[in-house]
Design brief:
The structure holds two protein chains of two kinds. Chain A is mainly beta. Chain A is built from no helices and eleven strands. In chain A, the strands form two sheets. In chain A, strands 2, 4, 5, 9, 10 and 11 form a six-stranded mixed sheet that branches. In chain A, a hairpin with a 5-residue loop joins β6 and β7. The termini of chain A are far apart. Chain B is mainly β. Chain B contains no helices and eleven strands. Classes of the chains: A mainly beta, B mainly beta. At the A-B interface, β4, β5, β9 and β10 of A face β4, β5 and β9 of B.
Chain lengths: ~120, ~120
């Protein structure tokens, strides 16, 4: 069985500050890990994904995430927040054996960026 | 333009009145899935399909049906809707062939209210 825990349902940062959104996973096999972003009144779109080629993954809009197997974590970071980063962020895990078959999403973290 | 479309985008109905939410993708993806999004609960998978005529239950399948008669379409059927099915629904698709992990592409969502 696989699961995802996102610590903090709401995160608030000032514009220009570091963004850190936390994700811990549980999977019986090496996982496929993803971060998705949902802007207001829109569907989800991919930010980045862990491919096992590198533990530090770079995504769109300046976001990156580091896979730490020992900590079963895949935290999302951005050095400097922008007002346009305000959105809801979801961490997701898929079972490697079934690829996209069974997908589990975290509860989401709403990011607020203050001017 | 590559996309996943859902119809209708908004629907208000009454308890017990059968309804269908359509989902179509133009990317020739093998995999399709339905999710519901509820505040504080993230996205929960309802059903998914790995290919035509192949469907399987997700985490919250009760009260829903799906069919996959054509590769591009994956309708969600509520035979007898109840108020607890009031939610925001997303359809998603993904390729399976090729180098994993394969991200999912999401539709714009359908907001359903059951009175």
């Amino acid at each position: 069985a696989q699961s995802v825990t996102q610590l903090g349902s709401h995160v608030s940062v000032s514009e220009g500050a570091l963004v850190l959104l936390r994700c811990n996973y549980s999977s019986s096999v090496p996982p496929y890990l993803f971060w998705y972003v949902q802007y207001p009144n829109q569907g989800l779109q991919l930010l980045l994904k862990y491919t096992s080629a590198a533990t530090l993954v770079k995504g769109i809009n300046g976001f990156e995430a580091e896979f730490k197997k020992s900590e079963t974590s895949f935290h999302l970071t951005k050095p400097s927040a922008h007002m346009s980063d305000a959105a809801e962020y979801f961490c997701a895990v898929s079972d490697m054996n079934t690829n996209a078959g069974k997908s589990t999403f975290g509860d989401g973290t709403t990011l607020t960026v203050k001017p | 333009e590559a996309q996943v479309t859902q119809n209708p985008r908004y629907l208000i109905t009454v308890t017990g009145k059968k309804l269908t939410v359509t989902c179509s993708q133009n990317m020739n993806h093998e995999y399709m899935s339905w999710y519901r999004q509820d505040p504080g609960l993230g996205l929960r998978q309802i059903y998914y399909s790995m290919n035509v005529e192949v469907t399987d239950k997700g985490d919250v399948p009760e009260g829903y049906k799906v069919s996959r008669k054509e590769k591009r379409n994956f309708p969600l059927i509520l035979e007898s809707p109840s108020p607890n099915q009031t939610s925001l629904y997303f359809c998603a698709s993904s390729q399976i062939a090729g180098e994993p992990p394969n991200e999912q592409f999401f539709g714009p969502g359908t907001r359903l209210t059951v009175l």
